[in-house]
Amino acid sequence: MKYRFHICDVFTSTRFGGNQLAVLPWAEGLGGGQMQSIAREFNFSETAFVFPPRAGHTCRVRIFTPAGEVPFAGHPNIGTAFVLAVTGEAACPGRVVFEEDAGSVPVTIERTPEGRIRCELQAPQPLSLGRSFSARSVAAAVSLAPEDIVTAVHEPVVASVGLPFLLAQVRDREALSRSRPDTRHVEALMAEGLADPFIHLYVQDGGEFDIRARMFAPFDGVPEDPATGSANCALAALLGRDGGLADGPHAWRIAQGVEMGRPSVLEARVEKRGGEVTGVWIGGESVMVCEGTIEVG
Fold it and tell me: Which of 92, 142, 151, 266 allows an S-S link to 85, with CB 3.0 to 4.6 Å?
């Protein structure tokens, strides 16, 4: 049987930048094993599959990396909403709500003054923190020295708003550019208790971008991800909580994917009330690359 797919680049306004995503907007009939095989065939960091809703929202979305299914991810939600808007399945401007294993994911869709489509999601869960790791252990896992890891705001810590990442701040852009995953030391982190070996590094920049970031997931078929919405959502929530910010709205413009030749722009924001982060959002533009059909079975 043939299934239609669309490939778009997410968190970019330039084709062949940002994060690649394959979306199958009518995936009903596919089983988990078939979806995993399709995700491996595309071999992007994620592939999204759209099904009829179960709980009365817009639709159900399932997301697969080359190695397995994840309960939530950033750029697949942004890209799926974009594809539905382009194909006329969703209104632009408008709002969709995706049903996912991590919870309901609202996504707003709007048309920019330049005529492009921008989508913004709200994280499905509040910030939750897991265990912390030493600067030495994390530095070894990304081929840096312990002094390259900054711990003034937070220790390297697992944080999640739907999908967990190990978040660590590095001291400058030069250290960020030098970072490389060392699988032997990533395995050592896993032995210490890192259940999901997704490592998100960032530096607070203060230039054209507020934050520059890189994300490594070498055991998930993603040596490096050019734009990680779920990780940057968790980072924004963590900075909103622990970064000494006053109540009110706060926003960050984030660059990722530069070192791998797929520059991405992510726009994160939080709302803080009573000293607590009450909402986390991330958004950006997308561009269509191609469409076609894939034979299954």
Answer: 92
Cβ 178 vs Cβ 144: under 8 Å: yes
User: Which among 194, 138, 193 has a CA at the least distance from the CA of 170?
Assistant: 138
Predicted local confidence at residue 205, as pLDDT: 87
Q: Are 105 and 97 in contact (CB under 8 A)?
A: yes
The DSSP 8-state label assigned to residue 245 in this structure reads P
Beta bridge partners of 33: none
What is the residue type of 66?
P
The answer to pTM > 0.70 is: yes
Residue 121 is encoded by which pair of tokens?
A: 């999601």
Beta strands in the chain (DSSP E): 2-10, 19-24, 47-51, 59-64, 69-70, 94-100, 103-111, 117-122, 128-132, 149-150, 157-160, 164-170, 199-204, 211-217, 222-225, 248-256, 264-273, 276-295
Residue 154 Cα distances to 170, 238, 250, angstroms: 11, 9, 18
- Tell me the two tokens of residue 43: 């071999």
Task: Provide the token pair at 15.
Answer: 């084709």
* Tens-digit pLDDT profile for residues 168-218: 999 999 999 999 999 999 999 999 999 999 999 999 988 899 999 999 999
Query: Which listed residue (28, 41, 46, 291) is catalytic?
Result: 46
Q: Please say if 110 is a catalytic residue.
A: no
The Cα angle at residue 201 between residues 19 and 282, in degrees rounded to 5: 50
Please count the other Cβ atoms lying within 10 Å of the Cβ belonging to residue 278. Answer: 12
